[in-house]
Specification:
The protein is of the alpha+beta class. It is globular. It has helices spanning 26-36, 65-86, 90-116, 122-137, 141-145, 149-159, and strands spanning 4-9, 13-21, 41-50, 53-61. Strands 1-2-4-3 form a four-stranded antiparallel β-sheet, with helices on one face. Helix content is 57%, strand content 21%.
Length: 160
């Protein structure tokens, strides 16, 4: 079955209706396309229609005419990105999983860091947090996955 993507623009909101092959991570990736462009999702419903088919209904509320215009300006680019994503590729699942690994390690490492800096002032904490963000964004997921959170926290402190 070929995927179906329908975007309806209303006065104060947009509805995106998608029917496509079901796969793990579909909702996250489609929502990511929308969020990366600065739009907030007001409503999202996903359901499996049968073993292989899913439907997503997404609503974006426009706060004002400027936001609606910004959406309309980006709508065709978003449509193309979403349509490209809907063409299922098993490799995408591995990429999603690698991102999840990185996020989990980031949170575990932050917990260790926060415990060690709990007595520091706010400004110092913010600087260390920025270093942690830079550290994780500049390392590959395999680098992060191969190390435990304690070692990662230690490296962040050494870099700081």
């Amino acid at each position: 079955m070929k995927s179906k993507l329908d975007i309806k623009i209303k006065e104060k909101e947009c509805e995106i209706d998608i029917t496509t092959k079901d796969w793990a991570g579909l909702v996250d990736v489609v929502a990511g396309v929308i969020h990366r462009r600065g739009f907030n999702i007001k409503f999202l419903k996903g359901e499996v229609i049968n073993k292989e088919l899913a439907n997503l209904l997404i609503k974006i509320e426009f706060e004002n005419e400027g936001e609606k215009k910004r959406f309309l300006d980006q709508m065709e680019e978003m449509r193309k990105k979403i349509e490209m994503i809907l063409e299922y590729d098993p490799g995408m699942i591995n990429i999603l999983k690698s991102g999840i690994v990185k996020i989990e390690k980031f949170k575990e490492t932050l917990n260790i860091i926060f415990e060690k800096i709990k007595d520091k002032d706010r400004e110092e904490k913010e600087k260390i947090l920025k270093e942690a963000e830079y550290f994780f964004s500049s390392r590959s997921w395999s680098y992060i996955d191969e190390r435990n959170p304690e070692d990662l926290a230690r490296q962040i402190f050494l870099n700081y």
